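Explain this fold:

***
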Amino acid sequence: MKITPADAQLLSALRENARASIAEIARRLGLSRTTVQSRIERLEREDVIRGYTVRVNEEVERGHIRAHILITVLPKQMPAVVQALRGMPEVRSLHSVSGAHDLVAMGVVPAVADMDDLTDRIGAIEGVERTTSAVILSTKFER
């Protein structure tokens, strides 16, 4: 999978608004509609674009508690821990990272007590050695 600079621009435009019309994206990128459509189809076919999603306005979840939950996993337990976390709808994303922790989860819940419960449930997963949480105060930007 080779991503060209034009593909990168197209992906950036789609990250900002995946519902924008092909014509709108084409105007923005200075390309023809046919070119944009064929690039999108190729990127989907090559599994570069795996799907489209919804980004909810922060105001909709105003008052919800969001936190990065840093997770340390015991050796050889990663697949089971990832599977258990996948089953928790409050965990919006999960990233494998380098450093003192092995995973970083994004947790979103309605109240502080719910975040306490979520971190307890994560900590109780077999193979999780330790968790540390960092509550998000605000989002400066998101792509």
